[in-house]
Amino acid sequence: MFRFLRILACTLLSVAGMAQAADKYSIIPEPERTELKPQTTKTLKLLSDKAEASLGKDAYRLAVTPGGVHLASGGDLMAYYKFNKLQLHLTDDQGWRLPVPGYPRLKSVASKRAESFGNRTPHEGMYTREELKELVAYCAERGIEVIPEIDLPGHNQALAAAYPEFFCFPDPGTKVRTTGGVSLHLVCPHKPEIWKFYSAVFDALKDIFPSKIVHLGGDEAPLEKTWEKCPLSVKYRQKKGMKDVHEELKEFEGKMASMLAARGKRPQLWYEKPWAEAGIYRKGDTVFTWRMGLTPSTITETKKQGLPLIIAAGEHCYLDYPQIPGQDNRGWMPTTTLEQSYKLDPAYGRPEKETDHIIGVQATMWAEQLPTLNHLLYRTYPRAMAIAEAGWTPMNVRSWDNFRRKVADHRAFVLKRFNYDLERTKENEPPFK
After folding, report:
1. Residue 6: which residues within 8 A CB-CB, separation 6 or more?
2. Distances from the Cα of 368 to the Cαs of 93, 116, 405, in angstroms?
3. Tell me, what's the pLDDT at 61?
4. What is the pLDDT of residue 2?
5. Which among 93, 149, 151, 155 is annotated as catalytic?
6. Which residue from 38, 114, 233, 301 could staple onto 227, CB 3.0 to 4.6 Å apart?
7. What pLDDT is attached to residue 18?
């Protein structure tokens, strides 16, 4: 899909201009190949850019005149830069946001927390089914597929607060987590209630999301501190003759995948090396590389294992990190500059025969440290534009200097089209309380 996306971008923009004229136009992401027919125009200056709802999915209209180009497209800032998937993280330790019929405590308990990182301000919220369907429809009109994420078996402290009986060591006093970190609340695979619950969850997802994909998380699950000590798990492994807890996990993930398959869906997962070493992933499972510094080795491993790979490398793609040195890093976040995001090479310098299993690139935005939409947009852009160009454009036609010029040009267009300013300085980030 990675190569397909690149080709699609080039096809849509193939009338834009010759490669040697690259410094005369401001298209992001940069097309792989452009052609300029004689006696048409000598410049690709963008004279106008407007949204036009009558244009269909992924459609553009380019009117080339002697003086430049007029562009019309479907419009919304995300689609404008060719992001065509939205992975929506709906559950975590700090809150459960998906309504599931028959489980009212998800809203009354799991969707609420006492504060966020010590700010003494209560926080709560859960989407309604209608709101999520509206979001899906809104995105679909703009060529964006919404992929829901339900994290399991870990990142489930909020669920444990609402339904402690789902867990190995039930504690009625469990509260929704108010800080970051890795929780020990992993659902217990030997509680019948779990399978009934996730059946209801997957039914809800099928009702709301047309996507054939459900992301099942799978990261930061400390099995050695939970399932390895769980009396029910110990007894089950002994009964089945399992050598370790990873065999139990492989069975668990297989059952979840089967439940999705029965609903016409398939799973995606965050890539964890211990899981890979234990054979948890099944050939054909799509996984995401995300841990900082591990993407090169993950590319090699997933190629051998037959796993389609999406690049979400933390050192380039995590857009919740500050983008200018000296900005608020919440005490631990590294700084990822615009140039650092732009330097992403999805293939990491390797030939196609070693990277043809890479199917996409993801710009990742975790919003728990960003209190408002304005904070989120500030950190997302313009770095998301750099990730878009990195994902769609071959390295041999990319130029940091040309990209910077294009970003400067786009600032005026984005301000006019979306009423949003892309200027970024050390001082102009929205303040954090």
Report:
1. 32, 392, 393, 394
2. 11, 8, 32
3. 66
4. 30
5. 155
6. 233
7. 30
Identity of the residue numbered 68? G
Backbone φ and ψ of 148, nearest 5°: -80, 150
Average pLDDT of the residues of the chain: 89
Instruction: Measure the CA–CA gap between 91 and 81, rounded to whole angstroms.
Output: 27
Q: Of the residues 76, 220, 228, 315, which is catalytic?
A: 220
- Reply yes or no: is the peptide bond before residue 29 cis, omega within 30 of 0: yes
Whether 149 sits among the annotated catalytic residues: the reply is: no
Distances 285 to 186, 254, 263 between C-alpha atoms, Å: 22, 11, 17
Selected catalytic residue, list 30, 92, 151, 320: 92
With contact defined as beta carbons under 8 Å apart, do 167 and 185 qualify? yes
State yes or no: pLDDT of 369 exceeds 70: yes
CA distance 137 to 128: 14
**What confidence category does residue 7 fall into, taking pLDDT thresholds of 50, 70 and 90?**
very low
Q: Phi and psi at residue 329, in whole multiples of 5°?
A: -115, 15
Residue 155 is a catalytic residue: yes
- Evaluate whether 281 touches 310 at the Cβ level (below 8 Å): no
Q: Is 375 a known active-site residue? A: no
Tell me the pLDDT tens digit for each residue of 46-65.
666 676 766 655 556 667 77
Angle between helices 383-392 and 2-12 (to 10 degrees): 100
Residue written as tokens 């850019």?
49
Sign for the CA dihedral angle at 202, 205, 206, 210 comes to negative
> Residue 270: CB partners within 8 Å, gap ≥ 6?
217, 218, 219, 287, 288, 290
The closest of 367, 366, 312, 304 to 341, measured between CA atoms, is 312
Distance CA 140, CA 147 (A): 12
Helix, strand, coil share (%) of the chain residues, nearest 5? 40, 15, 50
